[in-house]
Design a protein that fits this description.
596 residues, alpha+beta, 7-stranded antiparallel sheet, 14 helices, 31% helix
Length: 596
């Protein structure tokens, strides 16, 4: 069928607006902070065969999730669907990602014919398991992580399956909150159903089906055209996760090879570490999302996010690896590995496109959960995901205080957090001297201090970039490592990067994000930019002189040109023969450099 381009554009925008309106519906109606503040959820719209046609403006981390989940739904129920059905699932080994991410899908009908699906996935504050928040990095098998929901019908012909709801209610710590968030997902599906009916009434069922198919094909054509503009070749990159929280000090290898020929790209994770005991194992869908996000970052922004994009990008990750875990792999904290895979993609893409790719960010996101019971034995669960330092870009500094590209998350409101949980946020501030130096410096990280106000509770932390720091590119220095402390103003006890521990009233937990990597030679940085960072207390005068060779007079806030010239000459004389600063050359993190 030929398509009027104007009519197709109007239809495309109408469908995309449905996905966005679904996202806004979740935002307006959800209960938990991890959704209304962190916005850890996604919405989408699929055609009658479950092929993703549109994704709402939410998480890139879910780019690969809806297609994989829809494949599972179609495999189980393709011939067993009817108007009024609603499907639910979260099983990582049958289409899901990790147990807190619950999918809700609703098939949409017109006169008995299935034409589309409304799709939602939300991270729920708690789905049971051994640790409040269901997100601990030190679980060692899926069975300890919470309620595992196989693909099944939550509603059948419009009738709620009360047995499923009872199982959920009896296995989660906060059933009122979980049910409220599930209702937000159902409300988003209802909005999609209502608005899609208006589209079908306008275009008719046959034209609607044809247009949905064309939207996907259109995205594929745009993606392949963009890929043809990129150089052909193969590029590989290696990075390391510090450990899995079980085998401390045992690094975990991430290895990616990008092969690009014509209008097709292969992202191959062969060589990545076998799956580990700790809960940082990815599902293949999340590894795909990391690969798609990396590639999308170097493609034009006008390409729709749908299955057409994925047709042009083949992702390979062998089963039984940390990027594609198999039973009984624990995966609750798989977010850590997914975020690190995005940075690994940047390392490979930086060799392919040196002038378009940024250095490593803070390694985010860090997951922090605090749970327990008050004096009346009423449960509380606080879940927070935090990240905020982008790697330096070939044309500008890394962003400060911005969520990682893979997350697109916002921060919790401190006032709401303190009103809803027995927690005080006593510090939320940038930390100086942590950003990687470069012609363009990495993003500046921040720290948060959490004071616990209940009698006792359990603190769970998932972080990294302690031993293997965020890499710099093309002469840029790595960022400084992350840090965890208990009671920093008294005992100042250094904690490991991944932990589950008991805490008591008055304890203060401090998390400091890692600094992001720099880009380019620090001695080429504009002294005025160094002065600005010193004045803004993002950089100390001592580090300005040590890393950039810039001598700042803090009495009148000026740069001393003569002293700066002498200092930079001194630094150049201490460098290795290849022009890379000694401190960076000996850093264990591999660097991406231009091919010679």
């Amino acid at each position: 069928m030929t398509h009027d381009p104007i009519a197709l554009e109007l239809f495309k925008n109408a469908v995309f607006s449905i996905a966005d309106e679904m996202a806004l519906t979740v935002f307006r109606t959800t209960y938990s902070g991890v959704l209304k503040d962190n916005m850890d959820y996604s919405t989408g719209f699929a055609d009658a065969e479950g092929r993703l046609a549109a994704q709402g403006l939410t998480l890139p981390g879910h780019l690969g999730s809806v297609p994989t989940a829809m494949e599972s739904i179609m495999r189980h129920f393709r011939d067993d669907m009817a108007p009024g059905d609603v499907f639910i699932m979260n099983d990582p080994f049958d289409g899901g990602m990790h147990l807190p991410d619950i999918f809700v899908f609703k098939p949409l009908y017109h006169e008995g014919e299935r034409l589309a699906f409304a799709c939602t996935v939300c991270h729920h504050t708690d789905v049971g398991g051994r640790v409040a928040g269901s997100n601990a990095s030190d679980s060692t098998e899926i069975y300890a992580e919470g309620l595992r929901i196989a693909p099944m019908k939550l509603y059948e012909a419009g009738k709620l399956n009360k047995t499923i709801m009872t199982f959920i209610e009896k296995n989660v710590r906060l059933p009122v909150q979980v049910f409220g968030d599930l209702r937000a997902q159902l409300a988003a599906c209802h909005i999609a159903e209502k608005q899609f009916a208006e589209i079908v009434a306008r275009y008719g069922p046959q034209q609607t089906k044809s247009y949905l198919n064309e939207i996907i094909d259109y995205a594929e054509r745009l993606t392949r055209a963009a890929l043809r503009e990129l150089p052909d070749g193969e590029w590989s990159f290696e990075d390391w996760i510090d450990d899995d929280g079980i085998d401390y000090g045992k690094p975990i290898r991430l290895f990616v090879s990008i092969r690009k020929t014509g209008d097709h790209m292969v992202v191959d994770w062969t060589g990545t570490n076998p799956q580990v005991k700790g809960a940082i194992n990815n599902t293949l869908s999340y590894t795909k999302a990391a690969a798609y996000t990396g590639v999308r970052s170097v493609l034009p922004p006008n390409i729709p996010n749908n299955e057409g994009v994925f047709r042009a990008i083949e992702v390979i990750c062998p089963p039984g690896t940390v990027g594609n875990g198999v039973l009984p792999a624990a995966c609750a904290a798989r977010g850590l590995t997914g975020f690190r895979m995005v940075d690994c993609m940047f390392g490979a893409l930086a060799m392919m496109l040196p002038d378009r790719v940024k250095a490593a960010g803070d390694g985010g996101n860090t997951g922090i959960s605090i749970g327990g019971y008050d004096a009346q034995r009423k449960p509380f669960v606080y879940v927070d995901f935090t990240c905020g330092a982008w790697g330096a870009r070939p044309w500008a500094d890394g962003l400060d205080g911005n969520s990682h590209m893979f997350a697109n998350m916002a921060s919790h409101s401190i006032e709401v957090t303190e009103a809803e949980h027995p927690i005080q946020l006593t510090a939320y501030e940038f930390v100086p001297d942590k950003a990687g130096a470069g012609k363009y410096r990495g993003g500046v990280p921040f720290r948060r201090d959490y004071r616990f106000l209940e009698a006792e509770g359990v603190l769970q932390v998932r972080s990294d970039r302690r031993d293997h720091r965020p890499f710099g590119l093309y002469g840029g220095s790595p960022g400084q490592p992350s840090e965890n402390y208990l009671n920093p103003d008294t005992e100042n006890r250094l904690l490991p990067s991944k932990l589950t521990m008991n805490i008591k009233h008055g304890d203060v937990f401090r998390h400091v994000l890692a600094g992001a990597g720099g880009w380019g030679d620090p001695l080429e940085r504009d002294p005025a930019a160094v002065l600005r960072d010193v004045r803004n207390e993002l950089l100390s005068p001592e580090k300005a002189a040590a890393d950039y060779g810039v001598v700042v007079n803090v009495r009148d806030w000026t740069v001393d040109p003569a002293a700066t010239a002498r200092r930079r000459d001194e630094i150049r004389k201490t460098r290795a023969w290849d022009g890379v600063p000694k401190v960076q050359r000996h850093d264990p993190v591999p660097l991406a450099r231009a091919a010679e």
